[in-house]
Amino acid sequence: MQKAENLQKEKPVRFHLPYPLYDSHFHALQGVAKLLSAAFLSGLCGAVEVAVDEHHFDRRLEFTKLYPQLNLSAGIHPSSSGVENGNLRSRFTMVREQAAHPSVVAIGESGLDFYRDYAPQDRQEEAFRYHLELAVETGLPIIIHNRAADDRVLAILRESGCRRGVFHCFSSGWETAVQALDLGFHISFAGNLTYRKTEEIREAAAGIPSDRLLVETDAPYLSPQPVRGQMNHPGHIGYTLEALAEIRHDDPEELAKIMVKNSIELFGIKPEVARGQSTISMAD
User: How far apart are the C-alpha atoms of 146 and 275, rounded to whole Å?
Assistant: First the structure.
């Protein structure tokens, strides 16, 4: 006889895409990939699947073969920069090779994470500089991870020649946002914008010029408040759009159009409408 818990139905997966949207940052390898087909069919018009290290690139490329609206980044997350022994420059040789692939539209994510400190700070800074050099070399935008490291991230950016990219999952205040904008960068907001006691982030979101604004899920992390506690996925991006529109007093449909356009321009791609084009079903 089956145990009672095995007879319970799985909690239904929710999708909230009231308008076509572009997810500028998510990670597919941690359970999210199986939901991509439904997300595209629900109105997701494109997305960037973001690297955390140099491994599993071939597997990530398989997703782009299934979904023409999907592109990749190449890079090493700051917390991954200290995971392995060996010379960072040797590891970065592989990243450079991956960045040459036509499916790659960005470098990163890279930057500094002084909150968790999973890697020594000097090693994180070394890796960040390598990524910035590669972004300049390739002409691709850089995806910047910044956690509790505003001053050092901005200082290293000023030292570099890189002036194109995005501060992903922005979680700093207006002063940092202004400096990032002055350096030429876009700002992207994720599900943490919908949380309580995020006044500093909301203040920044209200003031970002619309032509520098992106939206993301950072899935499988940071599920928006209405689905908090569940695994995040690109189909939740509508919740963050609506919070952003409310904070800015913008029409959500118009804001969605603007942010899709911004994504197309920043990443140099043109996402196709996914409806009817996906090749994997929810059962796969």
Answer: 34
Residue type at 175?
E
Annotated domain spans of the chain? 17-267
CATH architecture of 17-267: Alpha-Beta Barrel (3.20)
Rounded Cα gap, residues 34 and 253, in angstroms: 27
| Longest CA span, the chain | 66
Strand pairing report for 70-74 and 44-49: parallel
Name the more confident of 83 and 55: 55
172: buried, middle or exposed (CB in 10 Å: 19+, 13-18, 0-12)?
A: buried
Helix (H, G, I), strand (E, B) or coil at 280: coil
The CA distance from 138 to 6, in Å, is: 51
CA 12 to chain CA centroid, Å, is: 25
Residue 98's contacts (CB-CB under 8 Å, 6 or more residues apart) are: 51, 54, 57, 74, 104
Given pLDDT bands bounded at 50, 70 and 90, which one contains residue 142?
Answer: very high
| Helical H segments across the chain, by residue range | 4-7, 36-42, 57-66, 88-99, 121-138, 150-159, 174-182, 199-207, 237-248, 252-267
Element (H, E) at 144: strand 142-147
Contacts with 94 (C-beta within 8 Å, 6 or more apart), sequence order: 54, 57
Write down the pTM of the prediction: 0.91
> Once rounded to an integer, what is the mean pLDDT over residues 148-166?
98
pLDDT of residue 87: 80
The rounded distance, in Å, linking the Cα atoms of 57 and 54 is: 7
- Listed in sequence order, the residues at least 6 apart from 113 whose beta carbon sits closer than 8 Å to its beta carbon are 77, 78, 79, 119, 124, 145, 146, 147, 148, 149
